[in-house]
Amino acid sequence: MTVQTDHEAVQSAKALDVARIRKDFPILARKIHGHPLVYLDNAATTQKPLSVVEAEKSFYLNLNSNIHRGVHTLSEEATAAYEAAREAVRGFIGAAATREIIFVKGTTDGINLVANAYGMKNIGRGDEILITGLEHHSNIVPWQLLCERTGAVLKVAPIQDDGSVRTDDLGDLMTDRTKILALAHISNALGTVNPVRSMIQMAHKRNIPVLIDGAQAVAHRSVDVQDLDADFYVFSAHKMYGPTGVGVLYGKEQLLEDMPPYQGGGDMIKSVTFEKTSYNDLPYKFEAGTPNIAGVIGLGAAISYLRSVNASSLEAHETELLEIATAALQQLDGVRIIGTAREKAGVLSFVTKNIHPHDVGTILDREGVAVRTGHHCAQPVMDRFRIPASVRASFGMYNTKEEVDRLVGGLQKVFEVFG
Amino acid sequence: MSDLRALYQEVILDHNKNPRNFRAMEDADRTLDGYNPLCGDHYMIYVKIDGDMIADVSFTGSGCAISKASASVMTTLIKNKTRENAAKLFETFHDLVMGKNAALNNAAELGRLAVFAGVSEFPARVKCASLAWHTLKAALEEQVNPVTTE
């Protein structure tokens, strides 16, 4: 038997049929200021394939009703469709049971749920919450709020010059008071892929539970929560070709069982009297109120779409785009790439000498190229690299080498305008 | 390219590269922070007042070409003007970048402000162009809280 490394497996993966994929995304046919759209803002949100749009539409046209309530046919069908999406999520991330899949509004909502329900019960004065310097504001601020309320302390593992975080640095910051480690699987601002598996192992040696912010990971890497041994794993549908306003919190069953509810309301209870209310079982205990039913069904369709694409082909394709774009930008005078870690996903952050990212973004837009400019909701990352903002090109499965050329051509136009 | 050139006119590029009155003012009567939290543009505006006159004005900080050039041009226009004149200029500038016809019809009055006419075609950049002006207005009204565009 020959042993194949991950890298070789990626290299040998069948090439992605990008032309066919592009046909599934109607918005890619749009022209922007007279140019075919080049959409390179996938880390902010991905475009949606027709099947996702149709799934939401079909729910409203054919199934619309509330779930888990009515005895009528529509309600039963809507409930079945909603729960089928939960099973699809379970399979997609390799969770043991659907009880561990909680539908939330998105990554931010999921992290707030854990910070509140887990945090208020298990974290107190003088305890420590460990994060990294790479985090999105959504994995900083909920913990700061928790610290303010409990008197806990936030500890932050530093970023290296290449945009990576050293596992040893994280380990050095773990103490007997560390009550949770929360970190990004992939950095939204720099694209750094954290070695979360070994980081989780290190935390578990000290009995520290770990929350992974998987917002930037699930559409770009295969994720198996049991293989990672993540305690909580959170992500948003809209960054994985699904709709906005819906996301997933995965949690290990025992942890979720031991947590009090986050929000109270309908659907999360077994019985209510004014004297005593008993809470529903998992996962419903954490799904108070009528959820985003159409969104959840759309997420199910997004997962079907992602599963129709070979995962290693997809990763190889995005890695190739990143490598080509990185090499091309390195050739341009006055461009500095921020984030050069060895393990990177398809996110390319950069600054241009004497030209502000905002001006770059405007000129690229006039060339039909959509990129993100700003601090990417990661101001501490910007501060770490002493830049006010950056330009960020981020790739998805439908991007092409020709589109990387359009980005480079757009940057040449920027230099032309600014002389 | 033509609308890009209309936005990034030579005058704007020049003021971006060589901003006028780009210095801190130690004896300023008013200083005020202005920032755009979305893109990180951040300026400090300094004003020296003599009776009803704006005796001196300067700025420091960093941001995109549009915001910096706008701050620079603004300082050259309102120095030695009365507060009333400055307030009028603010209105004219505001109308101009918002694409209101009144301003465009008075091309003669616009003078050096005219180079910002192209901004109205770029709605996302109106905030950049207006940041320094809003900060100046707030400083003259003796507001003390930093001005933000959001």
Number of strands of chain B: 4
Strand content of chain B: 15-25%
Q: What integer value in Å does the Rg of chain A equal?
A: 22 Å
Shape of chain A: globular
Spatial order of the strands in the main sheet of chain A?
4-10-9-8-7-5-6
Distance, first to last CA of chain B: 30 Å
Amino-to-carboxy terminus distance of chain A: 59 Å
For the biggest sheet of chain A, the summary is:
7 strands, mixed
Mean pLDDT across the residues of chain A is: 95
Layout of SSEs?
The complex is a heterodimer of chains A (419) and B (150).
Chain A: H1 6-12, H2 18-23, E1 31-32, E2 35-36, E3 38-39, H3 50-63, H4 73-93, E4 101-104, H5 107-122, E5 128-132, H6 141-150, E6 153-157, H7 167-173, E7 178-184, H8 196-205, E8 210-213, H9 225-228, E9 232-236, E10 247-251, H10 253-258, E11 269-272, E12 277-279, H11 293-307, H12 311-330, E13 335-338, E14 347-352, H13 357-366, E15 369-370, E16 372-374, H14 379-384, E17 390-394, H15 401-418
Helix pairs in contact in A: 3-11, 4-11, 5-6, 12-15, 13-15
Chain B: H1 2-7, H2 10-17, E1 30-36, E2 41-50, E3 53-62, H3 65-78, H4 83-97, H5 101-105, H6 107-110, H7 126-140, E4 147-148
Parallel strand pairs in B: 1-4
Antiparallel strand pairs in B: 1-2, 2-3
Helix pairs in contact in B: 2-3, 3-7, 4-7
